[in-house]
Structures are given as structure tokens and as C-alpha cells.
Design a protein that fits this description.
Elements: E1 11-12, H1 20-34, H2 41-47, H3 50-79, H4 84-110, E2 118-119, H5 133-161, H6 166-193, H7 199-221, H8 235-255, H9 263-268
Antiparallel strand pairs: 1-2
Bound molecules: fe (ii) ion (FE2) (2 copies).
Length: 281
């Protein structure tokens, strides 16, 4: 008997492309991947450690999960009656994330091959606790855009600066260029929703952000306490970048919108909130 979605079992993480009209439709968005300097690959295979292969495999899966998150966000924004240009952007970000998925999978192949990864595709996105459409959408947006994407940008920039490879530097630069607007969607959504959220909602969103911060800290560090390079970040490079980003790019812009991340959550990820919040994201 076929397992239902709720009973889905972990299965190997695999990707495929169908081609035909669907390949042609996607071609302009993924063209940059083909233009990366893949001739560097043989040298990378020799230089890459198992950690590097694991980091790029995990990155491919994280990008796939981000596609699922923006698909959920687009549906939630529709249910909340959000401005249609914002909804369209969320839908379009699904495509960005799928292109990032392919790019990361191809880099994993270039550094010696992806590692085996068991995943449960039925559980890519944690459902929101709130049932009211606006607050449910806000939960998803805070978790993905205001925390996940906002942290990703500075951490990936550090990875790009320390890559030591033209191929990986260019791949990360292309991904970073998209992730910045993925984070911005969160701040624009919260500003649009501000008048519709009350103090209880904002307190709830602060707890959601704190929980998400704790969740991202080990996710992004997983397996990367080896030396930095080829997209991997060692703890000495990762931890300060994460703590700074948590304070400057997550807690501070949330505080400027009346959403306080619990101090215990900030302490848990080593973040120190500047006493002078600014509205800048
Ligand atoms: Fe991405
Ligand atoms: Fe993203």
C-alpha cells in the first residue's frame, strides 16, 4: 500500500529534470550555471575533503527545502490577501531556489560527488502554529525570510570570500545575488502587515524568530568545523559570522518593527543585540 504524506519514510535525496518545454521554460533562469568555469573541476576533486562534499550536498537539500518554504509562503500570502506583487515574488523565489538546488548539486558532483542523504520530502516545511491566515503567513515569512534568508546572505558571503576557487566563488556570488531579495520580502511583508498585527501577534512572532534562530545555528554549522574553503566554513569563521548576522540582520530589524526576539534565544546563538536598533535590514 502506498504511504500517505504523513507516513512518508526517509528516502535517498535525488534530483531529475524532465526537459522538453519545461526545460526550455527554465533555461534562461539556469543559464548561468552552464557558464561557470567547470574546467576547474578536476583540480577541485583532488583538493576537496569529505566535509566539502557533505557541505555541498547539504546545500543542495537546503535550497530544495527553501523552494518548498517559498511555495508554502506564496500559498499563505494568497490566503492572507497580501499584495499580488509580493505573492508573485514569493512564487518566483521557488524558481530561484530550484536553480540554486541544481547549482549546488552540480558543485557537489564537481568536488567529487554528493554524499548519500536520506530525506523526508513530506516534512520539508514545519506548518505554522497560528490558524489565522495573516499570522500563519507571518510565521512562515519570519522563519524563512527574516531569519533563514537574512542569515544566509552574510554567511554565504564569508564562504565566497574564503572559497579559494573561481568556480565556487562564482556559484556562491550568483546564489547570494538572489538570496538578498528573498530576505527583503520578509521586511516588506511585515511593514505591509504592521497595522493588521497586534501586540500578542508580535510577541508570538518574536518567539517564532527565536526558535528559528536556534534551529539554523546547528543546521548551517553541520559538518563544517574543518578548515574553511571550497564553500565550507570552519567554526572559527562561521560562528562569529552567524552571531553577527543574528544580531544585525535578524534581531535588530525585527526589533525596529516591534518584534522582540527572546534574549535567551539570542544568547544561545552568541548574538549581542545592539542597544540602538535601526530600521535597516
Ligand atoms: Fe537559495
Ligand atoms: Fe533563498
Amino acid at each position: 500500500m502506498r504511504a500517505s504524506r504523513a507516513e512518508a519514510e526517509p528516502a535517498p535525496f535525488e534530483l531529475s529534470l524532465l526537459g522538453g518545454p519545461w526545460g526550455r521554460r527554465l533555461a534562461p533562469r539556469r543559464r548561468w550555471i552552464d557558464e561557470l568555469p567547470w574546467g576547474e573541476a578536476p583540480a577541485l576533486v583532488a583538493a576537496a575533503t569529505p566535509t566539502v562534499r557533505q557541505v555541498w550536498t547539504s546545500t543542495a537539500f537546503s535550497e530544495y527545502a527553501s523552494a518548498a518554504a517559498f511555495a508554502e509562503i506564496a500559498a499563505a500570502l494568497l490566503a492572507a490577501g497580501a499584495p499580488i506583487d509580493l505573492v508573485a515574488a514569493a512564487g518566483d523565489f521557488v524558481v530561484d531556489e530550484l536553480v540554486h538546488t541544481e547549482a549546488a548539486a552540480r558543485v557537489a558532483a564537481a568536488v567529487g560527488g554528493a554524499v548519500a542523504l536520506e530525506v523526508d520530502l513530506g516534512r520539508l516545511v514545519r506548518p505554522p502554529d497560528a490558524t489565522a491566515p495573516l499570522l500563519a503567513a507571518a510565521e512562515l515569512v519570519v522563519r524563512t525570510s527574516c531569519v533563514g534568508e537574512a542569515l544566509t546572505v552574510p554567511v554565504l558571503k564569508r564562504g565566497r570570500d574564503l572559497a579559494g576557487s573561481a568556480l565556487i566563488e562564482q556559484a556562491l556570488a550568483a546564489i547570494i545575488a538572489d538570496e538578498a531579495s528573498h530576505a527583503q520580502l520578509g521586511w516588506w511583508f511585515l511593514d505591509w502587515a504592521a497595522e493588521r498585527l497586534d501586540d500578542d501577534d508580535r510577541a508570538h512572532l518574536g518567539r517564532v524568530a527565536g526558535h528559528a534562530l536556534r534551529g539554523f545555528a546547528p543546521l548551517l554549522t553541520a559538518g563544517s568545523c574543518a578548515p574553511s574553503g571550497l564553500g565550507a566554513l570552519g567554526c572559527a569563521d562561521y560562528d562569529p559570522a552567524f552571531a553577527r548576522a543574528a544580531a544585525r540582520h535578524v534581531a535588530r530589524p525585527l526589533a525596529a518593527r516591534g518584534i522582540a526576539v527572546p534574549a535567551a534565544d539570542l544568547r544561545a546563538v552568541g548574538a549581542d543585540l545592539d542597544p540602538e536598533p535601526s530600521r535597516a535590514a
